[in-house]
Design brief:
globular, 7-stranded mixed β-sheet, 326 residues, Rossmann fold
C-alpha cells in the first residue's frame, strides 16, 4: 500500500473518479497546465485533456456559476477556488442557486458539484489566504461542508463528495497538504458524509476537532496521558454539515467532560453548535462546562503573529486540565 501525502491522495481520488465516470470534470484557475496552486490536480490535464480539465479566468463567480450549470445538465464538476478566502466572490452563486435548486425545483433538479478550496493557517500566507470560514457554508441549508484531516480520509471523502447528489464544499487544510504520509489503498475507498470518526479511545474527557486540529489534538492527548495520566477520547468530525452527533453524545455521557477545538473564530463558530447540542442531549451527564480552544475574534493576522492566533497542543492541554478540575 503506497504512502501518500494529502495532495497525492486527493490527486488519486480525482484521477480515479475521472477514469470511472466521464461526467466528472475539473475547472478552476490554473488547475490544468500548472496543476493547481498546490499541485493537487498535477498531471490530470495530460491524461484527460483540456476539455475535462479546464483552466478558467480569474473569476470565482464565473467558475462556480459554470459548475452549477454543468451539474444541472448532468455533469459532475469539481471546481477549485485557489484559497478559501476567495470564495466570498462566489458566495452568491452557492447560496442563491447551488444550495436552493433542489428545493426551488421541488426535486426536479440536483446540483452534484464539489467546490474544493485550501483553507486555514499555518503556512505564513498573505491576507485572504488563511481564513477558516467554514461556518458560512455549514450554516447554509442545501450545502454539505466537508473537511478531511489526513491523506487517507481526504481521498475517501473526495470520492464520496463527487458521487453525492448535492453540492459539497470541500475545504482542504493546507497546513496538512504535505505534513505527513499515510498508507492509502489503490482500490476504491469511501467514507459516509456526515458521520464523525473516533480516532482515539479514552475515558476521562471527550475532545472534538476537525481538519488541521486533529494532529494537534492527538499530540495533546499523548502529553496528557504521559504527564497527567489523563485518557482523552478524540473525535474527528470530517463533516460539519450534515453532522450526526450520536457518537459524540454517547462519548460525553461516558466521560462527563468535553473540549471542542477549531481554528475558526470563537464567536458563533462550529464549536458553539457542538456545545449547544451537548447541552441539549447530554446536559445531565456533564460534570463541568464544555471548553473551547479556538482562534480569536479578530481578522486573521499576518504571518508575524500567526502562531499567537493558532490553537496549539499546549492550549488544548490546558483546556482539558481546566475542565477536569472544574
Amino acid at each position: 500500500m503506497a504512502k501518500l501525502t494529502m495532495v497525492q491522495a486527493l490527486n488519486l481520488a480525482l484521477r480515479q473518479e475521472m477514469e470511472k465516470d466521464d461526467r466528472v470534470m475539473l475547472l478552476g484557475e490554473d488547475v490544468g497546465v500548472d496543476g493547481g496552486v498546490f499541485r493537487v490536480t498535477d498531471g490530470l490535464i495530460d491524461i484527460f485533456g483540456a476539455e475535462r480539465v479546464i483552466d478558467t479566468p480569474l473569476a470565482e463567480s464565473g467558475i462556480v456559476g459554470a459548475a452549477i450549470g454543468m451539474a444541472v445538465y448532468g455533469l459532475r464538476p469539481v471546481c477549485e477556488i485557489q484559497f478559501s478566502g476567495f470564495t466570498y466572490f462566489n458566495f452568491h452563486q452557492l447560496e442563491s442557486h447551488a444550495a436552493r435548486l433542489r428545493h426551488r425545483s421541488q426535486g426536479k433538479y440536483h446540483v452534484p458539484m464539489v467546490l474544493r478550496a485550501p483553507y486555514g493557517g499555518g503556512v505564513r500566507a498573505l491576507e485572504h489566504h488563511s481564513e477558516s470560514r467554514e461556518v458560512y457554508y455549514a450554516h447554509t441549508p442545501g450545502l454539505k461542508m466537508v473537511i478531511p484531516s489526513g491523506p487517507r480520509n481526504s481521498r475517501a471523502l473526495m470520492v464520496s463528495a463527487i458521487r453525492d447528489p448535492d453540492p459539497v464544499i470541500f475545504f482542504e487544510p493546507k497546513a496538512l497538504y504535505r505534513a505527513f504520509r499515510e498508507e492509502v489503498p489503490e482500490e476504491e475507498e469511501t467514507l459516509p458524509l456526515g458521520v464523525p470518526v473516533k480516532v482515539r479511545e479514552g475515558g476521562d474527557v471527550t475532545l472534538v476537532a476537525y481538519g488541521a486540529m486533529i494532529p494537534l489534538s492527538l499530540d495533546a492527548a499523548e502529553v496528557l496521558k504521559a504527564k497527567h495520566g489523563i485518557e482523552v477520547e478524540v473525535f474527528d468530525l470530517l463533516t460539519l454539515s450534515p453532522l450526526d452527533d450520536t457518537l459524540i453524545t454517547e462519548s460525553v455521557r461516558k466521560t462527563g467532560h468535553a473540549v471542542v477545538v477549531h481554528e475558526a473564530h470563537r464567536s458563533f463558530g462550529p464549536g458553539a453548535e457542538i456545545m449547544a447540542r451537548l447541552m441539549e442531549e447530554a446536559f445531565f451527564y456533564l460534570e463541568a462546562p464544555v471548553k473551547r480552544v479556538t482562534g480569536y475574534d479578530i481578522v486573521y493576522p499576518l504571518f508575524a503573529r500567526e502562531k499567537a492566533y493558532m490553537p496549539n497542543a499546549m492550549r488544548i492541554v490546558r483546556a482539558v486540565r481546566e475542565t477536569l478540575a472544574s
